[in-house]
Design a protein that fits this description.
Elements (H helix, E strand, L loop, with lengths): L6 H13 L8 E2 L5 H11 L11 E7 L1 H17 L5 H8 L7 E7 L9 H21 L3 E5 L7 H6 L7 E11 L11 H4 L4
Antiparallel strand pairs: 1-5, 2-3, 3-5, 4-5
């Protein structure tokens, strides 16, 4: 039972969770989160189920000129792996992280462990991504979770500072949403719920 003084907070939380939706990345503009808000986002991101207290994830923050440097690295990787890439494709990579004022990469550090399955570690990283989305919405920002091509490319991952065993669980683009999206169709519970 909820204590009466907690009821408004609970109803606000449930309203947020029941209406949150991802923004289109091209609809995200400045301003993005302040330094204090970013600390809040990352603190909440790290507050996830984590069997064994391994913290099998880490975060890379792309903001300001860091987004430009990251884009230059991706453009160089693309030019190398696809020498026939069009100028537009190379420019798309160069400006990839400029589509939002802030991008937070959640990096999975899942690795073999004597007790904790790698799968559980990966799920913990995915929970970090979801926490960022919810916290960004609570702060009034739009956000979207993408994986992007570099998730599957070893050279791109290395160029952005990942170790061989690390993978992107997600790149979360965050900013001020210029458009409020209508809700999309959601599954009918009867279609996705069974009882044993």
């Amino acid at each position: 039972m909820t204590h009466s003084s907690e009821a408004p907070v609970a109803s606000e939380t449930l309203a947020l969770l029941s209406t949150r939706r991802s923004s289109r990345v091209l609809d995200l503009v400045a301003p993005g989160p302040s330094a204090a808000e970013l600390d809040t986002l990352l603190t909440i991101a790290a507050r996830v189920p984590d069997h064994g207290k391994l913290a099998p994830w880490r975060f890379i923050v792309f903001e300001g000129e860091g987004r430009v440097r990251a884009g230059e690295k991706l453009a160089a990787v693309m030019a190398k792996i696809d020498p026939g890439a069009s100028e537009k494709r190379i420019e798309d990579e160069r400006t990839r992280f400029l589509r939002a004022p802030l991008v937070v990469a959640v990096v999975s550090r899942a690795a073999p462990h004597v007790k904790i399955p790698e799968y559980e570690q990966l799920l913990s990283a995915a929970a970090c991504c979801q926490n960022i989305l919810v916290a960004a919405a609570a702060l009034g920002y739009g956000a979207t979770w993408l994986t992007e091509w570099m998730t599957c490319d070893a050279a791109a991952r290395a160029a952005l500072g990942l170790a061989d065993f690390e993978r992107f669980a997600g790149l979360i683009y965050i900013g001020t949403a210029t458009q409020k999206l209508e809700d999309r169709p959601r599954p009918v519970l009867a279609d996705v719920v069974t009882r044993f």
